[in-house]
Write a structure and sequence with these properties.
575 residues, alpha+beta, 4-stranded mixed sheet, 13 helices, ABC transporter family substrate-binding protein
């Protein structure tokens, strides 16, 4: 499942890349270029990797996050955000369904999946006569915090809540669960036998995140986590010590009920903060990491005492997120005109101004340009204001007395929602606004705080945003979430594309399956114009010197922490 994320917010929930340098002498960002297919992605990893034996036992790490809640169910649309995923990973590894680890699976830096033995010691698949049987050996010690065993009942409930039959359950996407026929016990309750109506690939499309058996009604699923974390329904190496809604902080300590590797740290503190506040907080030693993804932030953070710069590629795709259900955007001609008016390079130039970052292609919501399966699917080649006006003119629009393109007396008028207070992010939205205005559209800016991100995006309270999603190593899950007419949030698609999406999940060969997924994306974009990738971008993190096993991690983590049990301070740097 792909997670919503802002274009440049403060959340440490987005993964990025490389070079570390001391914090004493201002030097400016080093020149860097995005990797393309065949590139060396090892350049995109910088975590100050250390063995736990070389770390101080104990200590505290304090991190900033753009929003805490308001809904903590990451499987629901309202809770589906990168911030939520980052916040919950240390305390609920069982349920996190995005990033490098969750439930039955964990990913390596390059996106290759293997069983997460804390929960699933072994996963085997057999296909016979067009049907698939998956056998899962669950760790005997795996238990929810309230003492409920993680066994066949957990897997059965996960399937029932996510398979999509009950439309009142506000899931993001049924994904591969729609193809599961049964979940039953094998030799005992810790052996789970899953049968499918058709083969499902990749296997990690199932049970990358588990749901406690008590979360078993639409009411609990949809609203039970509003302002309530329910730590009793979690399982992970840390536990919630305190959630202070007034101070907007969450404090985590080692979980005495955790059966896996014990954490090095004795405390993790998350603080909800607007982007501008994180700069002073990092410089004053109040937090241990801050992003420098825009020139203004970089220059203000540069030279901070006792800090390193860890820099790389952000696993993000976005730029054009259109809400096709809003009255101003229901006409596909208007959406096509928006895509046509956009100058992607100009927007990237504003967004990456002064960061010495360049990228040649950013045209898929599902895969990064360095993927061997990637192709640029942006649906418009002839772009610009005049080309966009022609799209509208051909659809029956004409300038009104104010010069705004209109049809049947109704002008093309909508808002771009911008989050946070970063000047570069604001300038990026304003650049898009001017491009659309030049094409005869009436476009205003709706300014919101970072803390409103989950509410506005999850509740679909916007017309257009320059937001996007995290990006995975395989497109199979994303193609259903974004482009299946029964699951994508705009309700756009058709029976022919839905059938293609259903079929591709049966393709065992990774290359063939991902190529089929990319072809679906190309067709959907060309026909419906609902989401378009304008940029991917760099990740630049300023990190407190001495913090180990933290930083740009590619697919191994979307929160810059490859393994929360090994996060800690090198000896002599303990906080």
């Amino acid at each position: 499942m792909k997670k919503y994320t802002t274009i440049g917010g403060v959340a440490v929930a987005a993964a990025l890349l490389l070079t570390a340098c001391g914090g004493g002498t201002p030097s400016g960002p080093a020149s860097q270029k995005a990797e393309e297919a065949g590139g060396d992605i090892s350049k995109l990893i910088s975590v100050n990797a250390k063995e736990t034996k070389d770390l101080e036992q104990g200590g505290t790490v304090t991190l900033a996050i753009g929003s805490i809640g308001p809904d903590f169910n990451g499987f629901s649309n309202v809770g589906n955000s990168a911030d939520n995923s980052a916040l919950m990973t240390p305390v609920n590894t069982a349920s996190i369904n995005s990033g490098g680890i969750g439930g039955c699976w964990k990913l390596d830096f390059d996106g290759k999946a293997e069983p997460n033995k804390d929960f699933c010691e072994d996963v085997k698949s057999e296909v016979k006569d067009g049907k698939q049987t998956i056998t899962i050996k669950v760790n005997d010690k795996a238990t929810w915090n309230d003492g409920t065993p993680i066994d066949v009942k957990t897997f059965e409930n996960t399937w029932k809540m996510l398979k999509g039959d009950d439309k009142s359950i506000d899931i993001v996407s049924a994904g591969a669960y729609a193809f599961v026929d049964s979940v039953k016990a094998g030799a005992n309750d810790k052996e789970v036998i899953v049968t499918t109506t058709q083969p499902v690939f990749p296997l990690e499309g199932l049970f990358f995140g588990l749901i406690h058996p008590a979360i078993n009604t639409p009411e609990i699923f949809n609203t039970g986590f509003a302002g309530n974390m329910h730590p009793e329904w979690m399982a992970g190496p840390f536990k919630i010590e305190n959630y202070d809604t007034t101070a907007k902080t969450v404090t985590m300590v080692p979980n005495d009920k955790w059966w896996g590797q014990k954490p090095v740290l004795d405390k993790v503190v998350w603080r909800q903060m607007e982007p501008s506040a994180t700069i002073a907080a990092f410089k004053n030693g109040e937090i241990d990491a801050a992003n420098g993804r825009t020139l203004g932030r970089y220059k203000q953070l540069e030279g901070t005492k006792d800090s390193d710069i860890r820099r790389g590629q952000r696993l993000f795709a976005g730029g054009l997120n259109l809400n096709a259900k809003r009255p101003a955007l229901t006409d596909v001609a208007v959406r096509k005109a928006i895509f046509t008016a956009v100058d992607r390079k100009a927007i990237r130039d504003v967004r990456f101004n002064g960061l010495n970052w360049s990228e040649e292609s950013s045209g898929s919501m599902m895969l990064m340009p360095f993927s061997e399966y990637y192709q640029d699917n942006y649906p418009v080649k002839d772009t610009g204001a005049e080309a966009a006006k022609k799209v509208l003119t051909d659809a029956g629009y004409a300038p009104n007395d104010k010069g705004i393109m209109a049809k049947d007396g109704v002008p093309v008028s909508f808002k771009i929602t911008n989050f946070g207070d970063d000047p570069t992010t604001a300038a990026t939205s304003q650049t898009l606004q001017k491009q659309l205005q030049a094409a005869g559209m009436d476009v205003a800016i709706d300014q919101r705080g970072d803390a409103d991100f989950g509410k506005v995006i999850g509740g679909r309270e916007f017309d257009v945003t320059i937001s996007g999603y995290t990006v995975g190593a395989d497109a199979t899950d994303a193609v259903k979430q974004f482009y299946d007419s029964t699951t994508n949030e705009n309700g756009l698609g058709d029976a022919e594309l839905d059938a293609e999406i259903k079929r591709l999940a049966t393709i065992a060969d990774d290359k063939e399956r991902n190529k089929a997924a990319m072809d679906v994306e190309k067709k959907h974009m060309e026909k419906y114009f609902s989401m378009g990738t304008v940029l991917n971008g760099p990740e630049i993190q300023f990190v407190r010197t001495g913090l180990a096993n933290y930083g740009p991690s590619l697919f191994k983590s979307l929160s810059n922490v490859p393994d929360w049990t090994t996060l800690g301070w090198v000896k002599g740097a303990k906080k």
